[in-house]
Amino acid sequence: MNPVGTITKLSVSVLVADRVKVDKDGKPVSTTPRTEEELKSIENMIARAIGLTPERGDMINVLSMPFVETDKAIIEENALGTHPLYEYLPFIKYGLVSLGILFLYFLLIRPVIKTMKGEVKEHYKTVEQLEQEQRQALENKEEEEIILPPVDDAITTLRREVLQNHVPTAFIVKNWIQEG
Q: Which three-class secondary structure state does DSSP give residue 52?
C-alpha cells in the first residue's frame, strides 16, 4: 500500500497552436501545423518540467492545432450554407409560444370563466324572482294533488293479495313470528 500523496502515473496532453501566416494588414490568412521536430522539442521540455518518468508508465501527448480562424475557414463555413430562415428562428419560436398561449386562453380559460360567471348569476336571484318561483311551484302543486285511495280499499286490496299469493305471505308471517 502506497502512502497518501504518492504519484502512481502521469498522463499529460498538450495542444500547441499552429503557425499563423498574416497578410499586410495583420489579419490571419492561413495556418501551418508545427513540424515533428518542434513538437518533439516541446514534448521534451514539458517532460523535464513535470518530472516525467517512463518507467512509472507516465505518458505525454503533444498535438498541433489551429487556434485562430482564418478567412479561408470562415469562407468554407459560409460555403456550407446557412439558410436565412435560421436568422428568424428565435422570432418563430416566440411566435409559436404566443400562439400556444392564445389557444390555451381561448380554448380552456375563457370558457371556464364564462361558465363560472353564469353560475354566479344563477345563484344570486332577486327577491321578486324567488317569490315568483314559489308562486309557480304552489300553482303546480294545486294542479297535481295526490289523491290517496280510501283506507277500506287498501285493506281490501291487501286481503286479495294474501289470498292469491299464499307462499310469500306465509314466509312474511313466519319471519314476523321469529323476530317478535
A: coil
Q: Per-residue pLDDT averaged across 99-124, rounded?
A: 83
Task: Report the C-alpha gap between 31 and 53 in whole angstroms.
Answer: 34
The residues near 165 (Cβ < 8 Å, ≥ 6 apart) are none
Domain ranges of the chain: 11-81, 89-143
pLDDT in tens, 2-28: 678 788 888 999 999 888 888 888 777
d(CA 96, CA 1): 63
- First-to-last alpha carbon distance for the chain, in angstroms, is 93
56-67: string of b/e by CB count within 10 Å (b at 16+)?
eebebebebebe
